[in-house]
Amino acid sequence: MNGTLTFLIFLPALSALLLLLEKNPKTVRLFALFITSCELAISLLVYWLCWRGIFSGRTLIKLDYPWIARFGIHYALAMDGVSLLLVTLTALLFALCVLVSWRQVNERVSLFHAMLLFLETGIMGVFLSADLFLFYLFWEAMLIPMFFLIGVFGHGRRVYSAVKFFVFTITGSLLMLLSIIGVYIIHGRETGVYSFMLRDLAHTQVSPVVSGVLFIGFLLGFAVKVPLFPLHTWLPDAHTDAPTAGSVILAGVLLKTGAYGILRVAFPLFPRAAAAFLPLIFTISVTGIFYAAWIAFAQKDMKRLIAYSSVSHLAYVVLGIAVWNDVSIAGSVLQMVNHGITTGALFIMVGMMDERMHTRDISAYGGLWSKAPAMSAFFLFFILSSLGLPGLNNFTGEFLILTGLFRAHPWLCAAGFAGMVTTLIYLLSLAQKILFGPPKEYRGFTDLSGRELAVLIPLAFLVVFIGVYPSALLRVLDTPVRDMVSAVSINPVGGIMP
After folding, report:
1. Which pTM does this prediction carry?
2. Given this model, what pLDDT does residue 138 score?
3. Count of CB atoms within 10 A of residue 390's CB?
């Protein structure tokens, strides 16, 4: 099974090269759908094997070969329950994005799907890398295809938004690179063995000052990608001008790489520095929850509103990681999956409306329920999921995060709960303006097609399934999360652990 990880990573990239040679749009779409479906099938197979207990333990599958041995660089991949869930989410959303783009993208079809598949390779590589050099290569590889997806296939100020996205993320990446080089050199001088392997670097002895500087480099690199307040300003523009598939991938999985980096790299490598910076992380996260919710309420563009809601929701994820107990971390990982499903579905539905009305302005809609009841029902359903209605998926993740917060800091739990109330206000306001009230004039507006139902039904099923049976996901998280918490000691009160 070791070759499974390599296959998951590089199958999309190799297929993308073939797509660039194909000119028939129908063939391109079918081939892209086939490849993304294969990725989804493989990830689901691994998940099923894990569920049956055939794979167990902290690491389900691992692969380690010396690559550039002179510099301690390994081609090292690993999958545990955390990365398994994120890989499966990635595979699902990419397959759905091909269906979503079936009629929306009619020019440069080969290039569009090739960029989509190249992007899938980069994201899969980030979630599966166990070597920090390899992790950084895939981290950078994500930027280029997303830049083209926004800049070439977007609309509005697409070039401006693509450049802004690239400048913000590359700046954060360069800061992270400096920290990678720093910890690599310090570890080599300390042990005499130069290595980029995460398991080796986790035992590096670093002075408090140097540890703090290196931790800041990693934190800034990941915070830009999450994004955390006040480094979030690139996200609304990128979402607004990206094509629907770009927005789905951006919100569904690309942002999760930042939270994943904090969980997998920053905190385990520098636990003492992480403990010292906890008050700052708490403050930024709580501020982001309320600030993004307030700004979302004032938006007139549906995409920008959902983009700001992502900033608010992912601040909860970072809070759960920062508290660093098994309940909060499990909730944060589960919420990454939930947010990808629900927010991805909302962006898909906004794209469907925009395809019919050629506008995302909230004031252009009203009384949609009487015109397209099926579309309206799905839209309301995903809004209720996003605001955390009990019985749906987001409620479970938020409940676990708040429970973990209460165990460590009751005041953080209170702030988080208050943030959920603000989320309820702007999302219900959106639903009321779009679905109810006096109906607007919808010329030629049709309800959901069979293809669109095929995209939305699996997402709706997952919303209910995770909401009523979260153990299906929490079971594979139990061992890796417990091992992570026991291996890394972080003082939840602040300061530095002895």
Report:
1. 0.92
2. 95
3. 9
